[in-house]
Amino acid sequence: MRLSPGRFLARVTALPAIIVSAWLLVTFPLLALGAFTPLLSAIFGIPAVVAACAVVPRLIPEPEEDRAPWWPVVLVLLIVVAFAAVQVAYHAEALVIRRDPASYAMYTVWIAENGALPIPRMHELIAGDDPALSYQSLAHYERDGVIWPQFMAGAPLVTSIGYWMGGLTGMLVTTPVLGALGVLVFAGLTARLVGVRWAPLAALVLAVCLPQQWVSRFTYSEPVTQILLLGGLALAFDALARYSGPGERWGRTHALAAASGLVFGLALVTRIDVLRDLLPLVGFLGLLLLARRGQAVPMLGGLVTGVLMGLYAGYGLSYPYLEYLSDSLVPLLIISAVVLAVTVAATVALWRAGLPQVWRVRWLPNAVAIAAVAVMVGLALRPLFWPDYGHGSDFTDQWVAAVQEMEGIRPIEGSRTYYDYSLYWVGWYVGLGSVLFGTFGVALVLRRLAQGRLAQWLLPTMLLSWTVVTTLLRPAITPDHPWASRRLIVLVIPAFVLFAVWFTAWLTRYCARASWAGQSAVTRSLPVVVAAGASVAMIGPTLITSAQGIMGYRQDVGTVDATENLCESLPEDGSVIVVDSGTASKYMPLFRNVCGLPTAAMNQPTPEVVDRVVGAVHDRDRTAVLAGPDWRPLEELTGVEPERPFRVVADMDPSTLMEPPTGSWTFDGSVWVSVVPPEENTR
Questions:
Q1: How would residue 526 be classed by pLDDT, with cut points 50, 70 and 90?
Q2: Tell me: the pLDDT tens digits for 478-513?
Q3: If we measure between CA atoms, which residue out of 538, 539, 506, 535 comes closest to residue 435?
Q4: Residue 580 predicted with pLDDT over 60
Q5: Helices (H) and strands (E) in the chain — how many of each?
Q6: How confident is the model at residue 70 (pLDDT cuts 50, 70, 90)?
Q7: SS3 state of residue 105
Q8: Helix 526-548 vs helix 492-515: angle between axes, to the nearest 10 degrees?
Q9: Structure confidence at residue 520 (pLDDT)
Q10: What is the DSSP letter of 245?
Q11: DSSP secondary structure string for all residues of 494-527
């Protein structure tokens, strides 16, 4: 059978989620068993990925839209390739831990090199349990004599592929490719829900959006999460395209349903807050069961499998991180339990009666449409009536106050969260047109759903609307930008763009029907004018923000070379003691994870303590290496002339609170080391 453009695009855009989930399904158990090696990952992971790519896309049905041309498919692929090329060319080199990208990078390097967690302290190679030493640093928690890296394992398991293939640079260019695949998956979801011809517009708006470019240049987890959640929606659409009764034999719809549930669940392996995003899926599965759809049980089985793996990723391999998040995570777990219990109870209570026929309530369609617009209006007016305060962190308060001082914001209120401006953040990055069109679009979609129409939109609307509202109400992130834009890019911005494109398509068709009655050239050209005008209204502001923002330079350039030089300068039998608390927090993972040397911090170095620790290192027939940000204290403490093998001066992200980020700040990083071999005397 000839492969139509629509089916080709549907298959290609499902592949990223299929590949990532197949890889995670195999490699996460290997990591949990301490066997995440290149050889075992290739032996088990490559066949799993190949088999999934060979089987699952063939199950995808022919799209309902027939006679779709090839030009939208070509445009989508060109946008994706161009995005990947630009992001690879401008990829960041964030390896020094200041914020999350370098934390993920250090996580990746450790598991790619060692294949297991936790990270041993290797204290027996330094000075044993000397009380002057500590082993915890930024994004690395010391618990029960071992070190656990921060965050979930999903993204590092994927970026490890790049590290194995190309070292540090290979790892750093993996995320730009993942970001491009996120654009591809979003285009596929748009093609399914809106139409193939509208997929290039959606892909282009997302591709030029500053947060999509920004997270794709760093080793963030958002690109992987975006692929899985948007890919799960696309596969769920395919699985539900045909009715399947409860007694029907297992077929392609059941397999696709199981695959979509698994893809959704595995997103929890990448980010623990995905648990909130998946709550609407629980309710949707209850509706599927009440509707007697045969896809309900396979989808539920896939979801449970992925979620169980995600929970083990959190509580088995990242427990100190979840402990740190307990103030927000525990309420989320309670809410999740309540949603599950209510869904089960409601499903049991309504089992005989079946689905409530809400479309018979005549006032409901208009009510839900008005409610959707009212929610957006409320979010827009929120800064006037409900300014938000309270980070719950003294450090965050101090940082926000410092940024306020730099921006000249008065009064200085470090406790200000700026969460009430979250809808305005969306407007910064995709423009007022996308926000308005998206609002009108979701209102119309909800209205039609309440009328019993657009059934294929039910799950995307439930999941995306829930995530948009809950995220905008409480982004739960330090509010400086571009940092805070991370919260928007996985689902919030794609949701606004998707609904905006749907509204544009609806308005274009409406004008086309209206123009049929007219005979003038102006009337006949109205649909084209509307489509072009709406497209410019979405693309223009998005492009301007990116062009005027932080997308014109690479960040932390030179860090890879400096890190490699640092490792080459250290003796193979070195035991590193970092003698400055600030340097210890930022650079300890470089010494331990990348250079592979036992490393500890000495936060209050004195000559007597240094003598004792250096002597203990020498007693173990190892070379003592003292490191710090300045040469003078090292020379005074060791009597050895220090060298500076790590030196980077480069552009880095700015921080803004009340406007989109522009320009750059300067990252100035230095590491001096004094190598003290056993025959040397300190001081």
A1: confident
A2: 999 999 999 999 999 999 999 999 999 999 998 887
A3: 538
A4: yes
A5: 27, 8
A6: very high
A7: helix
A8: 160
A9: 64
A10: -
A11: HHHHHHHHHHHHHHHHHHHHHHTT--SHHHHTHH
Tell me the H-state helices in 210-251.
Answer: 210-216, 222-239
Say how far apart CA 178 and CA 221 lie, in whole Å: 10
For residue 578, give the 3-state DSSP assignment.
strand
pLDDT tens for each residue of 544-576? 999 988 888 999 999 999 999 999 999 999 999
3-state secondary structure at position 574 = strand
Instruction: Count Cα neighbours of 142 within 13 Å in the Cβ-side half-sphere.
Output: 17
412 DSSP assignment: -
The pLDDT score that the predictor gives to residue 65 is 66
- Both tokens assigned to 219: 């080793």
The side-by-side arrangement of strands in the sheet containing 146-149 is: 119-120, 146-149, 140-143
Q: Which residues contact 351 (CB under 8 A, 6 or more apart)?
A: 289, 290
**Distance from C-alpha of 334 to C-alpha of 301, rounded to nearest angstrom:** 22
Between CA 669 and CA 39 the distance in angstroms is: 36
Percent residues over pLDDT 70 in the chain? 97
Q: Map residue 364 onto helix, strand or coil.
A: helix
User: 329 near 337, Cβ under 8 Å?
Assistant: no
Contact assessment for residue 174 and residue 20, using Cβ atoms and an 8 Å cutoff:
no
> Judging by DSSP bridges, how do beta strands 146-149 and 119-120 pair with one another?
antiparallel
Is residue 624 classed as helix, strand or coil in its secondary structure? Answer: strand
Six-digit token string for 404 = 């306020």
pLDDT digits (tens, 9 = 90+) for 184-225: 999 999 999 999 999 999 999 999 999 999 999 999 999 999
Tokens 């629980």: give the residue. Answer: 282
Token readout for 376 is 């957006």
576/645 Cα distance (integer angstroms): 14
- Residue located via tokens 């509307």: 530
Instruction: Identify the H or E element spanning 283.
Output: helix 279-290
Using an 8 Å Cβ cutoff, are 461 and 368 in contact? no
> Bridge partners of 146?
120, 143
pLDDT tier for residue 604 given thresholds of 50, 70 and 90: confident
Name 40's Cβ contacts closer than 8 Å, sequence gap at least 6.
Answer: 30
Lowest-pLDDT range, 188-192, 420-424, 471-475, 678-682? 678-682
Q: What is the dihedral of CA 176, 182, 187, 191, to 10 degrees?
A: 160
Integer-rounded Cα Rg, in Å, for the chain is 27
Q: Which helix (H) or strand (E) holds 140?
A: strand 140-143
Per-residue pLDDT at 66: 64
In the chain, domain spans: 120-150+555-676, 357-552
Select from 486, 567, 552 the least CA-distant residue to 95. 567
Q: Which residue has the tokens 């596969």?
A: 235
* Spatial separation of the C-alpha atoms in residues 53 and 59, rounded to whole Å: 11
Residue 680 predicted with pLDDT over 60 = no
CA distance 351 to 144: 49
What does the alpha-carbon distance between residue 627 and residue 417 come to, in Å, rounded to a whole number?
37
d(CA 243, CA 257): 12
> CA-to-CA distance for 266 and 224, rounded, in angstroms?
10
Give the CA distances from residue 250 to residues 238, 437, 589, in Å, rounded to whole numbers and listed in that order: 16, 41, 49
Alpha carbon distance 139, 135 (integer Å): 12
Rounded Cα gap, residues 7 and 3, in angstroms:
6
